[in-house]
Write the structure tokens for this entry.
Amino acid sequence: SPSSQLEVSGSTYATDGWTNVTPKILSYLGANKHLQTDHPLSIIRQRIVNYFYGAYRNQRGNPLFSVYDQMNPVVTVQQNFDNLLIPADHVSRQKSDCYYINQQHLLRAHTTAHQVELISGGLDNFLVVGEVYRREEIDSTHYPVFHQAAAVGVVTKDELLERNPGPEFFEEMWSGTLPDPKVILPSSKFMDQTKQPCHTLEAVKLMEHEMKHHVLVGLTKDLFGPRIKYRWVDTYFPFTQPSWELEIYFKDNWLEVLGCGIMRHEILQRSGVHQSIGYAFGVGLERLAMVLFDVPDIRLFWSNDSGFLSQFSEKDLHNLPKYKPISHYPQCTNDLSFWLPQDIEVDAGFSPNDFYDLVRSVAGDMVEQISLVDKFKHPKTGRSSVCFRIVYRHMERTLTQAEVNEIHKQIASASVDSFNVQIR
Ligand code: PHE
């Protein structure tokens, strides 16, 4: 009915003929996989953020980039499209491609949607990380919700001169023909794609070099290692000109990892920034995570299966494990608690790793995960007790409760024999 309303992240919206969000899609809001401890997408976010914090600092040693990772994914058509000079008839606006809440509001289709409000608020170097929503087929590499990190770096004429003293060609940089911010021409293929008319070639080349070779190649090498093969491919985005895609050579194919370019000057002008030039880029976190962790299917990032989630840890961000396929058969979880001998404690006479090896020897591939879930020291006797959680799951068949119980008993008695413990 025309008076229908929709409640989305705390606000109420009137629905209309544009509304096409589904309850299923709305259920992803607030899932925040990119902030979930030990989630592979959160690990990739931290790698990107740490790279920017570490590589770019001001004279006082503080990080140059600020990070926004909890912006509301509900944005206006103006934020997602108009502010970024995306033409009114551009295909990306179609109802068939986006999740609209109503004619004026949608779930952001890219994190670039926040760039104008942040620049207008006075920021010049920032990253926006969050989930984005696009209507797409579901296959092993597409999912209607995925995550992006988008960044902007804006530099003033004076800063650029300071960083690159000498050449007087910067004098010309802002003397080109400034665009009329009220008249937005599309950055079409018919215009000069080398540069915008307001920039000198030299200024563009300098910004391009800084963006490509310092920022983005630096990031790519930080993520994929110094030997990665990459190439730049010319492309088109309405909000940057010129624009490129960065591709890396991976498993015998060129794989697109990010889009970038020199910001359209109209966007800066309309955000109240003059005498500056900027770059912008956007990168998909799932794409990076699939390559870096060897995850074969994008749907796994939405899995709550502990067989998947337990494989990743943010304790060591620079040692990313390769994903090992999980079983499709059901899990069966059993706890085992025992008292350690007098005067023995965890890591003082008893090592959990010894127990893990014992479990592997007794149960072999029936065990998927083991973790130490509880440690306790009795206040009177002073004896230590530990509790291990064992998740049983076979790769090729469903385990019966009876055989799990039998193996669990064998683990208990082997522990008594090997470690002189007392089962509780
Ligand atoms: N927003 C673009 C996308 O989602 C990526 C991009 C960001 C490209 C910034 C250029 C500059 O594909």
The longest strand covers residues 145-156. Confidence is low (pLDDT under 50) at residues 168-175.
